[in-house]
């Protein structure tokens, strides 16, 4: 028994020493993923990003941080869960596929996963094909919390160990990629104005992630 305890401790110390970080607690709360959503995602990749794929997978290279402009995970789930986008003609003209994100973080820092992190989600024009989306419950009237800041940091650190993440950007910063090779949007006039989650939150978040040596935004 003593030897077993010693071995367990030794393995734990070894894992720590080689940089294995414990993943944050993530609650699985999957939105509808059926053949219709698969096909609409493939259509979006082809028609909007110019990418013909047999499966709607992404190869994550960046993380885009958003706020929801509503007050609950339940409301966000109910918004993202339908396969087709109801209303919002400024978006439906581009695709009937509903918006979504891979992750949502509640006000208290609880992390929910709506889609696998390597599966396509429609959340950022021009960058969906390579970007993981993190939604945060909040708005201009309800600024994001310290608990959400910590949870975003932990989640991005976890994702950075799985994927070669180069950029972490706020949704309001996405147009900075328009004149780069990262930008893939077939219609140059398909742009929406965004202000989430704001410069202050993103400056704080990137300051906490400085050791990851992320690339500066264009």
Automatic annotation (TrEMBL):
Protein's UniProt keywords contain Secreted: no
Phylogenetic classification of the source organism: Bacteria, Pseudomonadati, Bacteroidota, Sphingobacteriia, Sphingobacteriales
EC number in record: 3.5.1.28
UniProt xrefs under CDD domains: PGRP
Name of this chain's protein: N-acetylmuramoyl-L-alanine amidase
Protein source organism: Sphingobacterium siyangense
SMART domains per record: Ami_2
Annotated N-acetylmuramoyl-L-alanine amidase domain residues: 49-189
Top-level taxon of the source organism: Bacteria
InterPro entries in alphabetical order: Amidase/PGRP_sf, Amidase_domain, NAMLAA_amidase_2
Hydrolase is among the record's keywords: yes
GO biological processes: cell wall organization; peptidoglycan catabolic process; peptidoglycan turnover
Alphabetized UniProt keyword annotations: Cell wall biogenesis/degradation, Hydrolase
UniProt GO molecular function: N-acetylmuramoyl-L-alanine amidase activity
Top-tier EC class: hydrolase
Pfam family for this entry, one: Amidase_2
Catalytic reaction equation(s): Hydrolyzes the link between N-acetylmuramoyl residues and L-amino acid residues in certain cell-wall glycopeptides
